[in-house]
Write a structure and sequence with these properties.
The protein is an alpha+beta fold. About 30% of the residues lie in helices and about 25% in strands.
């Protein structure tokens, strides 16, 4: 499987010297750290070859570098094309991940949301988060039908897995 990751060129060049890239906790806003640690726990549960590295975030579709929002405007970045085995990556929904970052629930549909909010149905917020890995089931509902972006998280990526590099300036 081919995935793409956007990194700052500075971090990439430093990691390249040691033979692998890994996620950087220092690059995460403090208010999101608990959510990133939750993702690490999920990766430990679901990826046999994961060794608790900070996640590398990837896209399943090649990002359109003409668009903004990938990194701070003006940052020298690098788009990496990575070859990965299916058992080395945890795929999830991008929009759903943003719901987690905003400390929300992942509901299957509006009816479930209403039942939980009214106290009719019990659902722990963190339990609902595991649904981001059920992206095919979520997409069957109109509630998530427009949520089509998929992302992947991986642990350490060795340089020999990187098939191409493209430097660009973030817009």
């Amino acid at each position: 499987m081919i995935v793409w990751s956007i990194q700052t060129n500075t971090f990439y060049q430093a990691d390249k010297k040691i033979g692998y890239i890994e996620g950087k906790e220092a690059g995460v806003f403090n208010e999101y750290l608990d959510k990133y640690h939750w993702m690490k726990t999920q990766m430990n549960k679901r990826i046999q070859t994961y060794y608790n590295d900070f996640p590398i975030w990837t896209w399943l579709k090649r990002p359109d570098l003409r668009k903004s929002g990938y990194m701070e405007k003006g940052t020298e970045c690098i788009l990496l094309e990575i070859e990965v085995d299916n058992n080395e990556i945890l795929i999830s929904g991008f929009e759903e991940w943003n719901t987690i970052l905003n400390d929300g629930y992942i509901f299957y549909d509006e009816a479930e949301e209403e039942m939980v909010m009214k106290g009719i149905k019990k659902l722990k917020k963190e339990d609902s988060w595991e649904r981001i890995f059920e992206y095919e089931k979520l997409r069957q509902n109109s509630y998530w039908s427009g949520a089509d972006l998929l992302q992947g998280t991986m642990g350490r990526v060795y340089i020999d897995k990187i098939k191409s590099e493209r430097i660009f300036i973030a817009k």
